[in-house]
Write a structure and sequence with these properties.
The protein is mostly helical. It has helices spanning 3-19, 40-65, 73-86, 88-96.
């Protein structure tokens, strides 16, 4: 796989994964739960788990392309902030948009 394609694939998966907790009320979009509306802290825990899944996918693609580069705490801080920013549209739709009618 080309480096550019792998990079765009990780970005696309991160965009979908960051918004997934906000666009449904099931846990990880699969498991039905006993609540009618999923609480915010569950959504944030779900985002954290999905961040780790996307990170594992990125590491796997990087290892498949060639040698993995060692990362320091700055990489994880920036990528976590980027993941939160990618999830912002879902947050807006879920919590800040006024319902019609």
């Amino acid at each position: 796989m080309d480096t550019s394609i792998a990079g765009w694939l990780v970005i696309a998966v991160a965009l979908a994964a960051a918004n997934l907790p906000f666009f449904n009320d099931k846990l990880f979009a699969v498991v039905g739960a006993r609540w009618q509306r999923k609480p915010l802290f569950i959504r944030l825990l779900e985002m954290t788990a999905l961040y780790l899944v996307v990170g594992a996918l990125g590491f796997a693609l990087e290892a498949n392309i060639g040698t993995r580069f060692p990362q320091t705490w700055e990489f994880y801080a920036i990528s976590a902030c980027l993941f939160v920013v990618l999830g912002f549209p879902g947050f807006i739709v879920r919590y800040l948009r006024k319902p019609h009618g």
